[in-house]
Amino acid sequence: MLINTVLMFLRELLPLCLLLATLLVWHRSVWRSFALYFVLPSVLMLSLISLKMVWISEQLDGLGLELLYSFLYLSCFVLLCLSALKAQWAPLSSAIAAACLFSISGSNLLLYTWLPTQTENTPADLVLGSALGVGIGVSIAVLWYYLLTELKQWRIHSFALLLSLLGARQVMMASAILIQSDWLPAGPQLWQTEQLLSEQSELGFFLQALMGYEATPSLFQVLLYLLCFAVLFWCCSLMEKKR
Amino acid sequence: MRSLRRYLVTVLIALFTLISFVAALQSYKQSAIRAEALFDQDLQILASSLSQQYQAGSEQELGLALQVWQKGELVYRSALAPQTSMSDAEGFSEHNFAGKRWRVFRQTPTDVLTVIVAQPLKQRQQLADEVITASIYPVVLSLPLQALLIWLVVSKALSPIKRFSAQLSSKKANDLSPVELDQVPAELDQMLKTTNQLFARLADAFEREKRFASDVAHELRTPLSVLQVNLHNASQQWQRSNISDPEGSMLALQTGVERMSALIEQIMLLNRTNPEHFQARTEQLDLAGLCRQVVADWYPQIEKKQQQIELLGLEHLSLKGDAFALRLLVSNLVGNASKYTQAGGSIQLELCIEQQHALLVVQDNGPGIAAEEYNRVFDRFYRIGGDRHQSGTLGSGLGLAIVRDIVVLHQGQIRLGASDFSSGLKVTVELPL
């Protein structure tokens, strides 16, 4: 169905678009080298994952792909922290962080597009759905870019805050996959906000892409999220102080 | 924002895309919900149409009419269907029965069996309208949102131009400092640079002009003073030596040099009081006291011409102004009145307050000025009748020009008119308190 294709593209592209827009605000003066650092590893990683997807998914009792995704999400967070700490490597490391997220989104979209069960989708549905999804994702990224440029000018810690939210979101995603794969204990559920703000609603969707909003998080996930947020925020504050 | 064009193009395209696509998705979702409800309703109608014949007296307003004919005999009909055939034409057609307009479909799958199904047209249109309306609503509702966002984006994009314009309009006449803006977009950059270059050139030109006029007048004043002294000495010597001067050459020479000295003094004063150059040092001062001082300064000449002078009105009038400039203003007006009024004439100064403004009125009973000359006398170097002024009085043609500059400097007004005496000129100066 058309709506499923749109939601699939949005779910995969929106977090990537938000991260790229945020990093472009950061590396505006060196955007050409940033783009180059992003494109090369992205293409390389996506090609490797696509070519070896079957082999990867068969590893570790069939959890290979999930664990690879978790690793890429965590790498994204670690690389963002490194970018904030080491100014000279910032464009390269943050571009690779975005490339990690691109590899996950790209391989998921390839899976969705070429999966045999998707033959129910007519080519028209796929083309129109992907155009709508990409259009909305890119539009939000453009508006996000200008909003962040404006915020950065007036609010000193706004950039650090938003980058930390995006970084902590990647850890939240990794933890969700690891809990599903039984690599992490699920733990007690801390709250239930599905009625208040559904993950399927437009706002829930956006918050999920921005800060990894979860309607039913576990205590472990919340603590991990807060810790990662604090670490990245501290790294960003250090970077701003150095400037 | 580095470029207004890039900002407007990217943000507006992003806004249009986002709002249009979200509206399209909402239309899709709403239409899908309505379509699903419609199909459910169709199922309900079909079920109730089939069950009506088993429920005595249950005639539904909305429902399908069904007839099954076998070998020309009606073997089944729903409650809403008539006894006669609803349609004789194969396929779709429209007919009236049971007081309604119906859309009818007749199918004959075999030679002996005919199935006829009918649905009220009104019901079909109502259902179609619901689906279409559901798909149109999000698009229509998104329009005001688009308009609001476009207004915000365009206002934001134009804000550097607004700031630039505000800085220019808030500049004082003598402020030629460069305009400074944060984050100048590419489109405005050249305009800002050109404007600042223009300001710099203008400031240089003013400075050069100011220095040139001042330097020239200053350089001329010294040799003229020497010339005046030498002429005086020569005149004394001629008198002692009894040298006759029947044609009055010495007197004419002395008069010429005096006139030139007065002209140079006036040029220097004009230069000093020009609103474009003058840096006013405003202070609270007593205009009445200042007028008394000026009258005292001019009194020897007034007495020499046996003229009457009186100062009427307020004894104290406090206002904010530049003491040097205002003294010069009163001095020029009193000096003009004395110079151009005949011996034995009258001069009157009056001070009062009117509508939060100080009024200084200087009038005399001299020959006055024709009304058509009122505007021209404020022009620099303009003298009525040229150098052959009928009064035969020395003048530079700069006195009233200086007065007008001082009035402009104090954001006041000056008016000329006929004197309250039988003849003469009345000058009214209005200065804000």
Walk me through the structure.
The complex is a heterodimer of chains A (243) and B (433). Chain A has helices at residues 2-26, 31-51, 53-62, 64-85, 90-114, 123-154, 158-180, 202-211, 219-242. Chain A is mainly α and 243 residues long. Chain A has one domain (2-242). In chain A, helix 1 packs across helix 8 (202-211). Chain A is globular. By secondary structure, chain B is α+β, with helices and mostly antiparallel strands. Chain B has 3 domains: 4-144, Beta-Lactamase (2-Layer Sandwich), CATH 3.30.450; 172-276, Orthogonal Bundle (Helix Hairpins), CATH 1.10.287; 280-432, Histidine kinase-like ATPase, C-terminal domain (Heat Shock Protein 90, 2-Layer Sandwich). Chain B contains 7 helices and 12 strands. Chain B has helices spanning 4-51, 121-169, 186-240, 249-273, 287-304, 323-340, 399-409; strands at 65-70, 73-77, 91-97, 100-107, 113-120, 283-286, 308-313, 318-321, 346-354, 357-364, 413-418, 425-432. Chain B is rod-shaped, with a radius of gyration of 49 Å. Chain B starts with a helix and ends with a strand. The interface between A and B is medium-sized, with 14 and 16 residues.
